[in-house]
User: What shape does this take?
Amino acid sequence: MVLLVAPFFAARFYIYILGVIFVFALLAMSLNLLVGHGGIYQFHHAAFYGVGAYTAGLIAAKTSLPFWIGFCAGPVMAAAAGWVIGLFCVRLNKLYFGMLQISLGSLIWIVALRWYSLTAGDDGIHGIRMPEVLSSTINAYYFLLAVVSACILVMFLIYKSPFGVTLRAIRDNPQRCEAVGIDVRRHQLLAIVIATFFAGVAGVMFVVLEGSIFPDMLFWVLSLEVFIMCLLGGWFTFFGPVVGAAIMVALRTFVGSVTEYWTMILGIVLILLIFFLPEGIMGINFREWARGRSRRAAARAAEGTDAAG
Amino acid sequence: MELNITFAGLISQFLVGLSRAMILFIVSSGLSFILGVLRVPNVAHGSLYMIGAFTAHTLAMAGGGGVAGFWMALFIAPLIVALISLIAERLLFCHLYEREHLMLLLFTFALMLILGDLTKMTWGADYRSLVAPPFLQGSVSLLGTPFPKYNLFLLAVGPMVAVGLWLFSSKTKVGKIARAAAVDREMVGAIGINVSWVFAFAFVMGCFLAGLGGALVSPTVSITLGMDHTIIIEAFLIVTIGGLGNMWGAMAGSLIFGVSQSIGVLLWPQFAIVFPYLAVVIILTLKPTGLLKSVW
Assistant: This one.
């Protein structure tokens, strides 16, 4: 609700920041589908975010096709890339999976960086024109809000579905899942395709918001940042990554405007978090809340027995 | 695309790749050592490498840029890096060993962020370059093509470090304890060895190698912020294709990485950096757990 009415009283800059948070929230949630719920170490998730953004951006900038084709093609291309890379990676476990995934993802990054004639290399492409409807910040904001909420809803349904439950079971005990007849690799691959699809959506949303694409979007440092958002917010909770993304973006924007050393502040915040909130912000909240509730319940039960006695 | 490769050109490019591989080996063997003993991918490794390069530059400049300054930089810069890592380890990292693995990874990431900004504070955002000392300047002629002397120096130092590391880990008591801790840390603790200090030692030792790599590379590249991001990803991939925690694996991986890149420059300059990544993909597809036996 607050997000719906926000544009009426907040300054344009804050609307833009909220938009950025939406993009990263979606990206972090799609990654968390793999890392938090699937136990799959997808170390280079930003590659697919970049594929989505580059597909949409290039179609908009280099062809005369209508926008909506680019919007749809972005996530589809990202999911296709996710499927191909996933095919190679699912045979490996944990850290080896992550390493192979980084190198395959980095190949995509290199193509975006070095194929000057198509992608303009290091400079990227800026000022991609959006359709009239989306050209104002407010409209873009509502479009983003709608798309991101829809995606999160779909992800929530997936999370609650039998598939989501199976995925969490695989995370907790892959051998046992295999023993009861679950095709572990196929479930993981499907999860990767779903997650990379939503990463592609996040990429397209970035293009809508920013109107530019550049190779840093596919660099592994961004992937690590998104990974941190998941851990920061609480990677065993569903909405944790949103909190993580909001904190990261807010830190970068507001601390970054005060001092150029915002990454150091981020590092210090992370270390404090590791020492004091090891399950992420949402993780601790839930536990406290549950403890509080059970205590209250116990108190009520005690009162009941007192009254009875 | 027209290929115009002479035999001499190929050999000289091959040697350039080999000398690059020596730097990669020194850095990635440190990473591999930490990974083997602590089981933590040390993301801050690249930052320590960068600090090594910057410190070497400062020390060499303080020493007047001559031979004395060069040797001073080469020996003292890695020690300073080791000291930084010792402080970080004893102050913070050692309290986390019992934690979830991803938390350790997160800690090293936080360390990378902090060290990166500390580097920016100390040395600024400018590019720096260091000239090699006089006796390593210029080039020698190999099969009619000029080859930089400094690269020959690197070709000599790399194997020396490898042999030193091998002697250390197989002949000294500390090295043996560290290897044992890599295989079974509980057992090592059970026979009365302070595992926490073994871990500290392994971490500092690995970081020392990162600093040494940084000091050695400083005369060949422009020293700049951001060099940490490039090296760390390369070092990770090398360690992975070589077999986690295996020192000779790090050597094999470095050779493959360095040489495939330098040969790639001859074949397709624009996409030269694709070649090492392709090599990684091929190796991991064929042999998912790396070339040599992993200690895990």
Summary: The mean pLDDT of chain B is 84.
